[in-house]
Write a structure and sequence with these properties.
- By secondary structure, the chain is mainly alpha-helical.
- The chain has one domain.
- It is 77% helix and 0% strand.
């Protein structure tokens, strides 16, 4: 999971550590990836073992 989060969180680290200002498109793309990842992981938790 850390490897998956590395790419969408890169602009955040750049902003915090290097004081770079990310573009709106970069933030929007990272948000889309994170929301999709959380939804995907959430679906896996809700599925009962006998439904797989």
């Amino acid at each position: 999971m850390l490897g998956t989060l590395e790419t969408p969180l890169a602009p955040l680290w750049g902003w915090l550590i290097l004081s770079e200002i990310p573009r709106v498109a970069t933030v929007a793309g990272g948000t889309i990836v994170l929301v999709t990842l959380v939804r995907h992981l959430g679906r896996g938790v809700r599925v009962q073992p006998w439904q797989r």
